[in-house]
Amino acid sequence: MCCYLLQCYLFHLYFQRGRRNISRVKLGYVLWGIGMIALLEFFGAFVHIFEVTYDEKNFVYPYKGNVHEFVNALRRNEKPEVEPINEYKYAFILTQPQKCKENADDTLRIVYIVKSAIENFDRRTAIRNSWGIEKRFFDVPTRTIFVVGTHRYDQEVEAKLKLEAGIYKDIVQADFIDSYYNNTIKTMMSFKWLVNYCPNSKFYMFVDDDMYVSVKNLATFIRNPANYPFYLMESRKVYSAHKREIKQSDLMDYSDINFNNKSVTYDLKSKTSFTEDSTIHESTNNNSRKNNMHEKQEVELNENRKTENEYLLRLFNKPTSNRKRQLLDFELPDDIRLFAGFVFMRSAPHRHKFSKWYVTLKEYPYHLWPPYVTAGAYVLSKEALLDLYYTSFYTKHFKFDDIFLGLVAKKADIVPFHCEEFHFYKKAYTKHSYTYVITSHGYGDPNELLQIWNEQKALGNA
Ligand SMILES: *[C@@H]1O[C@H](CO)[C@@H](O)[C@H](O)[C@H]1NC(C)=O
Ligand SMILES: *[C@@H]1O[C@H](CO)[C@@H](O)[C@H](O)[C@H]1NC(C)=O
Ligand SMILES: CC(=O)N[C@H]1CO[C@H](CO)[C@@H](O)[C@@H]1O
């Protein structure tokens, strides 16, 4: 519109030239104007103008309507009233049907589903030899599965993959082209595989093949997510004395945690007899929702916090007490809907063209995303897995997998649970900075992963 008006104006000037001279100044203004408009357009200013204000209550994303009934019908294997609007119907090429069912009545604790690229053979080897080891803790039965797409034109790499799958029997392959913008397909094919071939686990961890994972810390986290890792940090007195430092903490609001229960409100605080320690919660309560900043700032913030954490870890390095034991013995109920990782509560779509993450208004009209968990690593309870899977049938496809799951979760009324120890960037490594780390991004180098995993394991942190 604006551009059109400007063009008209220019033509107008051009045809008038015979009659009178345009001053250089005037032309300068016009060029300046065009420049500004081009710049604004580039940074998406005009798109911003037409954005719809995100409002939790009035948010709609197709399918437009309540889907709970349909989801429940699908879960009961019945025909829903309204046909699904979105399904990822790609065939499985490799399925590993035996993977989770070696013993018919096995209940698994955690299943790792690793999003991997076909050619990352070395990374998979490193994971199998580090955090992906299946029999590490006798009381925490786990499975590790790698999910890949296809490489249509590279027969050699495909053949190598088949060989690898034959040896380790831990590779699931689906028939879609493996690429960045197909990550949603990969994620949803993973869900499909889990629901069909591996429904006998209590938790499911989705993780990229360039992540460090502490199985030990994850196992602890899923026992008591609300208080991780604070209940491990001993001595309330010491903690209170350093409230000033801890106040920066960017944690979810614990006061109203209910984990999206279906029938009961689980008051974790009272269940874990934590009343005595209420100060701990209050001190972390306040600064909760400050995720409304850009990712870069977030990283800086976390980097600044690093020194505090290191300081605290030194302070809290004390022997186990009874209270800690008691908290460790806590177990989340089976019907809990946990969807946890590093959560962005209020982040905005990229509107400047040429961004890798550029999103048109047609794809998504709101000025903010719903809360979403960054894609590198997140953990789901079985109930959350099932509800998200069937709700995805009623959620319009979106190209970014983490945003897509955020949209699905919103529809399913599952509020993502934030935990800072899922580091979506590479947390600076020192022997002691990884004590409570659950995951850290940035371990694409297999040797580095093996090295730090072994070191952390020796320290009792992995
Ligand atoms: C995603 O996979 C589908 C199915 O193989 C393919 O048709 C499509 O081109 C892929 N998209 C991208 C962006 O690679
Ligand atoms: C929480 O923050 C608000 C403003 O951000 C402040 O007024 C209030 O005193 C804080 N509460 C606590 C318990 O620190
Ligand atoms: C989010 C959620 O589902 N909350 C429910 C928890 O349980 C109580 C008691 O049944 C319900 O009223 C809430 O709606």
Automatic annotation (TrEMBL):
A GO molecular-function annotation: hexosyltransferase activity
Ranges of compositional bias, category Polar residues: 277-290
Domain of life the protein comes from: Eukaryota
Residues that span the membrane, as ranges: 27-50
UniProt KW keywords: Glycosyltransferase, Golgi apparatus, Membrane, Signal-anchor, Transferase, Transmembrane, Transmembrane helix
First-level EC class: transferase
Keyword Glycosyltransferase: yes
A GO cellular-component term linked to this record: Golgi membrane
Topology relative to the membrane: Single-pass type II membrane protein
A Pfam family that the UniProt record links to this protein: Galactosyl_T
One GO term of the biological process aspect: protein O-linked glycosylation
Compositionally biased spans, kind Basic and acidic residues: 292-303
Subcellular locations according to the entry: Golgi apparatus membrane
Residue span of region Disordered: 277-303
EC number(s) per entry: 2.4.1.-
InterPro entries: Glyco_trans_31
Transferase as UniProt keyword: yes
Family in the record: Belongs to the glycosyltransferase 31 family.
Name by which UniProt lists this protein: Hexosyltransferase
Organism: Mycetomoellerius zeteki
